[in-house]
């Protein structure tokens, strides 16, 4: 069964927001900037400090977030795309099946593709909701 987690988008203040959420909710916070990632050479130096991915975990709570917008490396932030639903899948078959089912009647934004941490893709479903799909093999050691 995949794990469903909210994924928040910020315009340059993700680290600040996630640190605040950690101070309120407790737990462990892991933050990776673009400059610290395998994508470092693909973003302008001025955007290197922006958060590629962060994750706050505390028991069953999993809250993820990243920076976008402001001419940054990953699209733009507009009302309506500030929260996504992220499915963390358990197998290649599961991510492929769920991706196809939820994309039906919607729009594929990022086709499923191999990334440095595993498989990733995103869609906007027929109701306008953004879904992110992740599969990280057990034998992979992602930074996050």
TrEMBL record:
Family annotation (InterPro entries): Glyas_Bleomycin-R_OHBP_Dase, PhnB-like
Signal peptide region: none
Gene3D superfamilies: 2,3-Dihydroxybiphenyl 1,2-Dioxygenase, domain 1
Annotated source species: Hymenobacter arizonensis (Siccationidurans arizonensis)
Protein name in the entry: PhnB protein
Domain of life: Bacteria
Domain PhnB-like: 4-131
């Amino acid at each position: 069964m995949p794990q469903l987690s909210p994924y928040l988008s910020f315009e340059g203040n993700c680290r600040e927001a996630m640190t605040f959420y950690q101070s309120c909710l407790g737990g462990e916070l892991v933050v990776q900037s673009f400059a610290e990632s395998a994508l470092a050479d693909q973003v302008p130096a001025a955007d290197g400090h922006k958060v590629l991915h962060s994750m706050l975990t505390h028991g069953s709570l999993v809250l993820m977030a990243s920076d976008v917008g402001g001419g940054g490396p990953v699209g733009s932030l507009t009302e309506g795309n500030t929260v996504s639903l992220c499915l963390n899948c358990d197998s290649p078959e599961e991510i492929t099946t769920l991706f196809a089912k939820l994309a039906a009647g919607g729009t594929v934004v990022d086709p499923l593709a191999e990334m440095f941490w595993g498989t990733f893709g995103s869609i906007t479903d027929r109701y306008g909701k953004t879904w992110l799909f992740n599969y990280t093999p057990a034998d992979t050691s992602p930074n996050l």
